[in-house]
Amino acid sequence: MEKHKCDKCDRPATYHSVEIVNGKKIEKHLCEYHAAEEGLTFKVAHKPINELLTNFVKMHSQDQSSGPNELVCDHCGLTYAEFQERSLLGCPSCYQAFARPLDVLLARTHEGSTEHHGKIPSQSGFGEQHQQQLMRMRKRLDEAITAEDYELAAHLRDEIGKISGTAEGGETL
Questions:
Q1: How far apart are CA 162 and CA 141, in angstroms?
Q2: For the chain, which residues make up each domain, given as ranges?
Q3: Residue 29 in contact with residue 13, Cβ under 8 Å?
Q4: Rounded to two decimals, what is the model's pTM?
Q5: 90 with 122: CB under 8 angstroms?
Q6: Which of 11, 47, 104, 125 is a good FRET partner for 69, with 20 to 30 A between their CA atoms?
Q7: Residue-wise pLDDT tens digits, 54-108
């Protein structure tokens, strides 16, 4: 895409508009100064995810006791206080080293749960109760496999396939 300069000066244009008036196309390219001068407002840009995460961690970690701030990852040496500042973990071992305070953050993020269950696509046709039933059945399937109860596991697999409308291999029935 070609970069435009402001129609009124040589600064880079940050406001672009196209209007059709009486069948004619009218384009405007203005810098922030001239756009504000004409009373044009800008939409607030979304903050980068790392900035949102940093603010979230800082906000929710301030009410923690001093204990978590003293935690240190044995593998990379990152302290929990450094994690709070940067919102970035140093290595996979940090998840174990900071497990307790991270669980608190996750619980706040996921409305009390420390597990993420995802969202149900609105066009899927499945209601929340239906989705929860499938999740319970999948959990029972995992438990049956772990217990080596393969007959129950096969039955649950078939039931899940019927309910979700797919075969085990993901093929539509």
A1: 14
A2: 1-45, 49-109, 122-164
A3: yes
A4: 0.32
A5: no
A6: 47
A7: 666 666 555 444 456 688 999 899 888 888 877 788 888 888 888 888 877 777 6
